[in-house]
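Supplementary Methods S3. Input chains for the assembly prediction are listed below.
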Amino acid sequence: MTSFLVRRILGAIVILILISLITFYLFYALPRDPARAFCGKICRPETLTLIRHNLGMDEPLFVQYWHWLSGIFMGREFTQFGACPAPCLGYSFATQEPVFSAIVDRFPVTLSLTLGASVVILSFGILTGMLAAWKVGQPLDKIASSTSVIGASLQIYFVGPLVVFAVVDTLGLLPRPSYVPFTEDPLTWFVHLLIPWVVLSIIFTANYTRMTRSQMLEQLAEDYVRTARAKGMSGRSVFFRFAWRGAMIPIITIFGVDLATLLGGAIITEQTFTLHGIGELAVRAVQNTDLPMLLGVTVVGAAAIVFLNIVVDVLYAFIDPRVRLS
Amino acid sequence: MRSHSRRIATATAVLAVGALALAGCAKGGGGGAPSAAASQTPLENKAVSAITVGTAADSTGPAPEVAGAKPGGTANMIDRDDFSHLDPGRVYLNYNSSVSLLFTRQLTNYKEDASGSIKLVGDLATDAGTTTDGGKTWKFTLKDGVKWQDGSAITSGDIKYSFERLFADFITEGPDYAETWLVPDPNKPFRDQYKGPYDGKELDTIETPDDKTVIFHLNAPHPDFNFTVAMTGYGAVPKAKDTKQKYDKQPFSSGPYQIVSHTTDKSLELERNPNWDKNTDPIRHAYPDKFHMEFGLQSQQSTERFLADTGADKQAFTFHNAVAPERVQEVLGNAEAMKRSIQGLTPFTTFYNINTKRVTDVNVRKAIITAWPAKQLQQIAGGEINSGKIATTVLSPTVLGYEASDLYGKLAKPEGDPEAAKKLLASSSTPTPTIVYAYNQTPTQEKITVAIKDALTKAGFNVVAKPLNPATYYDAIGPVDNQYDIYWGGWAADWPTGSTAIQPQFDGRLIADNAPNYTHLNVPEINTAIDQANTIADPTEAGKAWAAIDRKIMEQAAIVPEYYQTYFGLYGSGLGGVRFDPIQGEQSALDIWVK
Amino acid sequence: MTTVSWSSEPGTSRGPEPFLSVRDLSVRFSTEDGVVHAVDGLSFDVEKGTTLGIVGESGSGKSVTNLTILGLHDPAHTEVDGEIWLEDQELVGAGASTLEKLRGNRVAMIFQDPLTSLSPFHTIGRQIGEVYRKHKGASKKEARDRAIEMLERVGIPQPATRVDHYPHEFSGGMRQRAMIAMALVCDPDLLIADEPTTALDVTVQAQILDLLKDLQQQFGTTIILITHDLGVVANTADNVLVMYAGRAAERGTVREVLSKPSHPYTWGLLSSMPRLTSSVDVPLVPVRGTPPSLLNRPAGCAFHPRCDFPQLVGSDLCFTQRPDISPENGHGDACYLTLQQKRDIRTGDTKEQA
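Predicted structure tokens for the full assembly:
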């Protein structure tokens, strides 16, 4: 298991460096000149040159990339912004705040949103899928399957405001979604994120219900399940102990992919519920062509996805012993 | 089987969308683009009635009490953006200036009285400065009892330091008038001549014979230097507390409030500064105990909240957000909301630059202005209240010296006069000229372009419209040899005299890439007139001279004036003393009290 | 339809009571295309301590028969008629919990492909142990010890280590042995082996078959061996049942059926087998035609479309009326040809084969 982890982590680092390199070149090759933003209303040419020099933009692109990369490990000194301790992802061109602290500050919001939604999606989806498979062909199965299609057809920016309007404004059952730090008050944190979690899960759960159902049915037709029954294991035991494990493998794989979608969807979710997470940072960075922030958010987002995929792989190895030894 | 249930799902979704749309309509009133202003009552946008220089008496605190005001409570400010800079030296935007008034003081500042007249008075200084040599040397004396938030005295050394640090290489965003005037050679880059105080060197041209006196030795006469130092950019910074780059997030206060915390893009908290003495301050009040400021609200959201006027929003105002264009009609018709509305003329004017390097025949340029469909464009932009009053001069009414004049009869025929334009073209070198019109590619601008094209074509022009990417608009029109003939621009004077309203844009010697002289106008007569006007000591006389230059520029038809920009905003019912600041063009926090 | 039911025939006691008795078993699947008659009026007996080989091609119904014995068919889409008696316990009508108690306990089954038939997620020891724990109420330790014991019994080296390995860590032959160990852990009276050696290579095949024979000798287990390979039957079984299209075609002792086959299908099977003794250039003679569709079976004898001899019968019985197995006891077949005709054809064939 250790060598497996080590290999994956090294691979992840290589991927991240590649991603950062490509992103860097893509963004910094754009025609827009960020130096203008640091110049006054009447911008003299010599001031513009000074600013470009301060920002390090008069250096070749590769040297700029190298500064950025080394800044992550060793910290950096910026004329325009001051000292930037490691890990330094630069300063936002728009707000002049350190990119790293901005991301770290907003990270718990996106994390709470995504993880919380994942828990709801997986538990609901898998439970209803197993229920549908347990009662295959019967009314319960049909209900579960059709609601899942409706769910998959919905969009966050449509369902979100609708739910808020109904539950918060009209019925007053729950408070308006916002982020309260978990460390401050776990209960409030939970209650205030409930609506975004449920909305996200309405849309994603459908997929997992259907997948779990079909995977369970497939597994139940597998030979080794037949053997289990031939050994006299009870129906319930066969269902929950045997078929379940095989069904989970493709589901966890799909979830690894979906996690990227969830994180990306976090942008829309954060906009819909006015949550100040990394998604909002990303949107604003794009609107302002805020290159350091864009770069920082992209790399951090990529790192999160890579890390989560490693977790998925480890989980994989736990469930399926055949993976462990390869 | 599968497609069947999917069809049901889609049908359900469509129904639900319809329901939501209906709900939105019922709740909010008109949606969609700003409607034509047929039934709109023009608001009274008063120009300032006079701008004068005040006396020492005018400069003495306290500021006159606001009727009915009482101390206490927390005032809330909601707005779209966080303040990008709070370090005075890096402030240029009016948005940052508005909030800086709460904790940053300058040598001089503006005092507005009930009649709408504005006086330049001493803020930290005892008066608006004195000069005996026509503006080459300026002397300011600091008041007694002006202190920093930690109780230490504000000294002349602090003032000198505040100017010196502007030469540092990370302070690039603010104005640089004073810097250019305080070095030996105004024509060479000022940073080459002095590097700032961080290596221990001082700026000799600022003299501080004692703790209370500051003497500025400028390299040329500048009679309105006392207006210059009223800019937030020349606000006071304490030498002992200068945290350099970090100062931008949390400056040290000399004003009625001090900063408690600042979370970028989220909130700013201010509380009373116990060491601010109101007797030293002729313009500010400090009624609320606290200010709580929140960011991230689009104008639709803030308009919504002001209209709802519930909870903490009752004690809310906004610096910058205006009433959202699509809700303007609704607000105008809501008598209760109108009681809590603010309107006024901002310092901003907008216009269309005519590239005089390419369109060299003045009659062609005059024909453009004559044919221009000003009224139609105003309608497309949502009427006067959303865009502004139709302008006919270079100077805004908010500038000292403004004189109303309408050389091309636009007020009589705001829809444009194609016949008269044709006549002008007939007497020009090219009866059917081709004109390249570059514009910001947005939905509204597309409509405006169509209208412009129509009107100019009727007059005989051949119009080529060139859309530009909004993100790189200024990069595109910045080069002196850009390939466009007409392109939009906007401007506000940095202080309300003609100097900064006219010189940066129309002085032919200042033509450079990315410089504000987008018309590339270079008329020797105008350049000389500018030099002369800059030396006139009496502001009113100077104003007359600038008005004459304004008329000359209009005779040159260098720009097509568009609007004197207006502001229309709301605030909560639980606040009193909310007024319009004509210098910044935004709501003012200085008189606010919590009911 | 006449059935073979030795014990109910008055006066004829052919040795001891059959251990397993299948009587007139019919199994029908409802599918989208119609009703599939997988097993159609099948009857046979198995005596205690013997090995019955069930032979037939794919679709003959041999696997379905055995799954039905254990009640492992899909109850939603399957209809079962007839009776299956395990000593004094009737199985077709038995409830789920009764069947659960029997499975793995009195009746055990081993399957064709041990790789897919064993759970990849659990160790061999766990899989063997849990049967023991379920039926005998043993503790974890006892179950593990028993698993090691079983692994040893089936000839797996280092059983104490291998008990904690996963199925994919075993070779094909070892896996099948492990499966056998799992089937035998509760000392079942009846072992049903569904093509246990088909997925293995020949040498391993021989080992497994020997193992089964040894276990039968040691523990007196009754074995039903399902295969399509007559060679396996010849080697291991005592009695043979040849199935075709869900029905019995011929049955008897191995000796009887293989040396004096009396059904045209059996002739086809035997002549299509390669023999070590025949010369290489004698062509194999497959049974002509294709297996029948179990949806629309031909009327009369199921085999007649592929049979060379219906015209010898004289009438059109082959095409209209299904033949019963006759004689009812001993070596019987379901064919209208007379004994004489059969002998003639057989000797004629034998001559060709020589």
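Chains C and B do not touch (no CB pair under 8 Å). The longest helix of chain C spans residues 202-219.
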